[in-house]
Amino acid sequence: MTPVRRRQWTKSSYSGGNGGDCVEVAIGERAVPVRDSKRSSDGPVIEFGLSAFAGFLAAVRVGRGV
């Protein structure tokens, strides 16, 4: 039996300490799961392909709206 590995969620570095809007991602998977940090236990998780997520990050880095 293959052990189930729990996702290691990482909160955005832009997250403030006041509980504001923020996202979390889990790294090290075939897809990049993303969730709302305010609803981490009961909210939905959406997953992006690695190339789609890399393209999104590249666009954000240059300040382009996506």
Topology summary:
Blueprint: E1 9-11, E2 23-26, E3 31-36, E4 45-49, H1 50-61
Antiparallel strand pairs: 1-2, 2-3, 3-4
What do these coordinates show?
The structure is a single chain. The protein is α+β, with helices and mostly antiparallel strands and 66 residues long. It has 1 helix and 4 strands; from the N terminus they run ββββα. It has a 4-stranded antiparallel β-sheet with strand order 1-2-3-4. A hairpin with an 8-residue loop joins strand 3 (31-36) and strand 4. The longest helix has 12 residues, at 50-61. 2% of the residues are buried. The model has no long low-confidence stretch (mean pLDDT 81).
Radius of gyration: 13 Å
Strand order of the largest sheet: 1-2-3-4
Overall pLDDT score: 81
| Structural shape | globular
- What is the strand content? 25-35%
Order of helices and strands: EEEEH
Poorly predicted spans: none
Number of DSSP helical runs: 1
Q: Look at the helices and sheets and give the structural class.
A: alpha+beta
**End-to-end distance:** 42 Å
Keywords summarizing the entry:
1 helix; globular
Q: What's the quick description here?
A:
Helix content is 18%, strand content 27%.
